[in-house]
């Protein structure tokens, strides 16, 4: 019951951060920290999908060595465990990474990592990335932990979508500002040209 209450508290805290901030970096790190705290884990991360390049990049992480962070960054869809989750849109639970035949990156074994839980970040039927948790001990993730991370993934997905739309609006506003400035400059040039024409006419 205490873990269930902690899970609800975590989701409420994430919802609060999402509703009060459009700073995507703050949202991602705050959400990851709260999920790690609720599950008593120290290692986790969040990938976001670049919808133009179709590449997954790590935008938030905790507990990574520099070598590990570099080795698992920049994944194609279908590549690695997070790439597979983005490809299928389904959560992935692995009790023992070292015995999973899909493991292709030796850095996971070198880091002594064992159990893994990955869920998609979803918004409006689109998968925008993943959030994942890693344990250095063999761990059976509970149904409550799975549900917690899935719901957190949905909240984060909506936040990512909202932040993207906000940034797009800012870019459009800047484009309109630049267009307006160019228009004013053109008008000014035309007025100067007209003035010169009038001056020439007055001299004849």
Strand content: 15-25%
- CATH architectural category: 2-Layer Sandwich
CATH topology: Beta-Lactamase
Kindly state the number of beta strands.
6
- Main sheet strand line-up: 3-2-1-6-5-4
State the fourth-level CATH superfamily: GAF domain
SSE ordering: HHEEHEHEHEEH
Q: Enumerate how many helices there are, as a single number.
A: 6
Query: What percent of the residues sit in helical stretches (DSSP H or I)?
Result: 55-70%
The coarse overall form would be elongated
- Ends distance: 96 Å
Poorly predicted residue ranges: none
Whole-number mean pLDDT: 83
What integer value in Å does the Rg equal?
Answer: 25 Å
What is the CATH top level name? Alpha Beta
How many discrete structural domains? 1
The major sheet is characterized as: 6 strands, antiparallel
Helix and strand composition category: alpha+beta
Give the SSE layout.
Layout: H1 2-20, H2 24-39, E1 43-50, E2 55-62, H3 66-72, E3 75-76, H4 80-88, E4 92-94, H5 107-110, E5 115-123, E6 126-135, H6 143-202
Antiparallel strand pairs: 1-2, 1-6, 2-3, 4-5, 5-6
Helix pairs in contact: 1-2, 1-6, 2-6
């Amino acid at each position: 019951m205490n873990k269930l209450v902690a899970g609800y508290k975590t989701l409420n805290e994430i919802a609060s951060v999402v509703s009060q901030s459009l700073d995507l970096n703050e949202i991602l790190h705050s959400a990851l920290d709260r999920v790690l705290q609720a599950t008593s884990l120290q290692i986790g991360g969040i990938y976001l999908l670049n919808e133009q390049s179709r590449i997954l990049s790590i935008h938030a992480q905790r507990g990574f060595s520099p070598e590990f962070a570099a080795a698992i960054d920049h994944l194609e869809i279908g590549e690695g465990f997070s790439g597979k989750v983005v490809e299928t849109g389904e959560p992935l639970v692995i009790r023992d990474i070292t015995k999973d035949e899909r493991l292709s990156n030796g850095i996971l074994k070198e880091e002594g990592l064992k159990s893994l839980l990955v869920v998609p970040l979803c918004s409006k039927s689109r998968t925008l990335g993943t959030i994942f948790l890693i344990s250095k001990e063999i761990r059976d993730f509970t149904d409550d932990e799975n549900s917690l991370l899935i719901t957190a993934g949905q909240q984060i997905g909506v936040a990512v979508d909202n932040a993207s739309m906000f940034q797009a609006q800012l870019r459009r506003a800047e484009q309109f500002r630049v267009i307006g400035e160019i228009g004013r400059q053109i008008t000014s040039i035309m007025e100067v040209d007209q003035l010169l024409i009038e001056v020439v006419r007055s001299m004849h």
